Please model this.
Amino acid sequence: MSLKTAAYLFSLFRQVFQRYKFRVALAVIIGLLAGFLDGLGIGMFVPLFSYLVKGGAVGDDAISRTLSAIFGYLHIPFRMWTLLTTFGFLYSLKIIAGFSGDLLQTKILNDFETESRSSLYRKTLSATWPFLMAQKLGHLETILIHAMANQMRAFRNTFALIHTITTIAMYLVVSFSISFMITTVTLSFGIALLLLFRPLGKRIEIYTNKMGVLAKKTAHEVNENILGFKTMKSSGVEASAAADAVALFRAGRDLRMKQYLVKRMSTSFWEPFALLYIGIMFAVSYFYQRDSFDLGVFIAGMYLIQRIFSQIANLQGSLHSLREMLPYARMVVEFHDTAVREREENPGTLPFIFNDKLEFRSVDFRYREEQEVLHELSFSMDKGGVVGIVGPSGNGKTTICDLLLRLFNPQKGGIYIDNRNITEVD
Model:
């Protein structure tokens, strides 16, 4: 993930969760605590393995000596049962913190999703008629249901990313206390693999953008066919309509398969790389430190390295998922901002009163600059009277009705009801 993408995600996260900032901060703190406790729990494996290998003696590693000193200060015997009890206590705290954090995150996200859907739907209905008219059938459904659900997954992955980074940091602290050299090489190797697979993350984002566009097209195609079932059946074009939809379905299948293959390529190699690396580290450590080789510390260290690789793989998975979901989050935010910009203004304050007549006075209107529909249109009709407007299709009959309903505003002139401009009427 580039710095630009990370900055955008942070800005987006801050923007959408502004109302929930205290609850979000609490959820993040609990996630950090869970990662911290996870690292401490993993660190307990070092004195446990050392205790077993050395037959009850305190290991020579820094963690075992530090824990023994803490136990001595608290007058706790350094025994297997005290080590297991401490490990169980830390693990229980980690489970409680993890469950509490997940529960709070789920509550925040569900509340936000419901309120955001409701707010976006209201703002869409309050937008101007030209904006609503430009929305293709099925697009709003795609935004409200599918895009917003994926936006929530992006935010959930952000919480998971924070927890993963904290866990890796704690693992590294424990691992550095065992072997600075091996940990440094491990960290460098992990970062190199992340950079190696980085282009695949960009490819995932490209496929996701294409899938978002395709989802809109598919929703539009299906909804149009549903509305036109009667015409379709009477015209005998069912096969042609089905063929168009099937082509879109197959395009979606192909994109999903490509995206899956790219994700699998970037995650499948972590485990064999980790096993190969551990094997090499074992051979090197045993060959160069044969006289001082501590099997207990080495087993704990290698288990820790395997966990570091596993967490780095989780980190990459979270980054890929963020890339996969980020286009949907952008789609929701951009639609929201456009709906807000296109909000229909209602400056009128006068009550609706119609006692005399309705007038069009020198009204000009055009949909586009080059397409003038009405020019200097003037006429009046009395209350209770009947006026017929005739002419070929496209000459502005429907436009006159739309102007009267204030779905559009004339570029010149005005429409008056009892000598009051209709823009002044509430």
User: Anything to note?
Assistant: The first helix runs from residue 3 to 16. The first strand starts at residue 357 and ends at 368.
